[in-house]
Amino acid sequence: MDKILVHGGASLSGSVKISGSKNSALPILAATLLTKEPCVIHHVPDLSDIHYMLQILSHLGAQVERASGVVTVQAENIRTEAPYEIVRKMRASVCVLGPLLGREKEATVSLPGGCVIGDRPIDLHLKGFEALGAMHRIENGNVKVFAGELKGSSMHLRGKLGPTVLGTDNVMMAAVLAEGVTVIDSAAAEPEVEDLANFLIKMGAKIEGAGTRRIVIEGVKELHGAEHSVIPDRIEAGTFLVAGAIAGKGITLKRVDPAHLSSVTEALSRAGFVLKTDGDTVTISPNGAPKPLELTTEPYPGFPTDMQAQMCALLAKTPGISVITETIFPQRYMHVSEMKRMGADISLNGPMAIIKGVERLSGAPVMASDLRASAALVLAGLHSEGVTEVNRVYHIDRGYELIDEKLNGLGAHIERVKA
Ligand SMILES: CC(=O)N[C@H]1[C@@H](OP(=O)(O)OP(=O)(O)OC[C@H]2O[C@@H](n3ccc(=O)[nH]c3=O)[C@H](O)[C@@H]2O)O[C@H](CO)[C@@H](O)[C@@H]1O
Ligand SMILES: C=C(OP(=O)(O)O)C(=O)O
Questions:
Q1: Nearest Cα residue to atom 27 of ligand 1
Q2: Are residue 192 and residue 249 in the same domain, yes or no?
Q3: How far is residue 21's CA from residue 44's CA, in Å, rounded to a whole number?
Q4: 61-120 pLDDT per residue, tens
Q5: Where does this protein hold UDP-N-acetyl-alpha-D-glucosamine (predicted)?
Q6: Does residue 333 fall inside a structural domain?
Q7: SS3 106
Q8: How far apart, in Å, are the Cα atoms of 55 and each of 18, 148, 285, 341, 365?
Q9: Ligand 1 nearest-atom number relative to CA 372
Q10: Which ligand has an atom closest to residue 165 CA?
Q11: Which ligand sits nearest to residue 97's alpha carbon?
């Protein structure tokens, strides 16, 4: 297994280009199953999760071509059962359920389990499909959804911990081919949901309100091929902003949508950094000693759970006491015990992390447990003394395109040791 060695203490400057969004690209690629015609998707990041999604599409019978960030998919004749061996590697595989159900009125996908960030049920996805007239059955670890016909209806898709992003995507993808009007209340309003809706609209779907809490979909008979460019990855961008906060003399992110980053830039401004936006760029510069923060993760436009671990890395060395409350995945703190091994003073109280900024962190061998936790450990390594050895780097490769090369381009000293 590859590992990453972060030599702490380098200062970062210059600029970095942000890739297309993983969490937009995955459902958008799944949505290509909704038509027999070719779809062309630009700015698809080169990530292992994307690779798995393309494998699933191929297995389902689609013709898939990929050339430097551009993916063409034609799903002329398709099967409706996604294979366990690929599906088990990536939770986002569940988002083929919606398009397969919409087009073929049935779909079978291996049921995703929980993962280290917490329980990850799909009850809300199934509730939405049921509202459209589908039934489901759990058999041999698979979930099968099926319907005679799909009929539009009104539903609330909110669980105890808020709306569901992939659940909203899934129901929207099934509803575009249902008969009549579907109203999704308490929908997820994340930019990735809006991006998927924009792609579906290009394919001929009739959708209003995506990006708000109420989405209205008027079903159509069929969809056609379309071309689309995936939005910039706001979580990769946020991660680089934190790198700039931790070790930057001033760094600029290129090809971002600053509006999608507002909760992160607002938090970093409160922490004392200077953030400047110009078109599709954001620059972060230091401005004296950073300040501690109180932060709560929330559905968009609130502070994203996918940025929580990275903020822990920054606040671990920020003077004073910071408090983070994780409301989306209350147990998403696997990085904390690893950061403590680097000298951080963080205590957990249920969904709350109390972080006492320390003067010094020191590099250590640490274990990446999930995607954002591993990115956070790399960030922590940037302001630690000595070398931080991040193991199980395959987690990082799920969601960050060339993170080591991009950070080195800004002046970091990071080595990737191939297994
Ligand atoms: C590929 C992708 O886009 N992943 C993102 C997506 O995951 P994903 O879409 O899986 O996350 P959800 O928005 O569904 O989860 C939000 C909360 O709802 C709960 N829940 C979810 C579905 C369900 O049927 N029942 C239920 O109770 C979850 O356990 C969690 O507590 O949104 C998360 C929340 O912003 C992000 O952290 C992930 O990076
Ligand atoms: C948790 C994430 O991804 P997934 O939902 O695919 O696990 C993430 O992107 O931070």
A1: 159
A2: no
A3: 7
A4: 999 999 989 999 999 999 999 988 888 888 899 999 999 999 999 999 988 766 788 888
A5: 91, 120-124, 306, 328
A6: yes
A7: strand
A8: 25, 28, 41, 38, 33
A9: 39
A10: 1
A11: 1
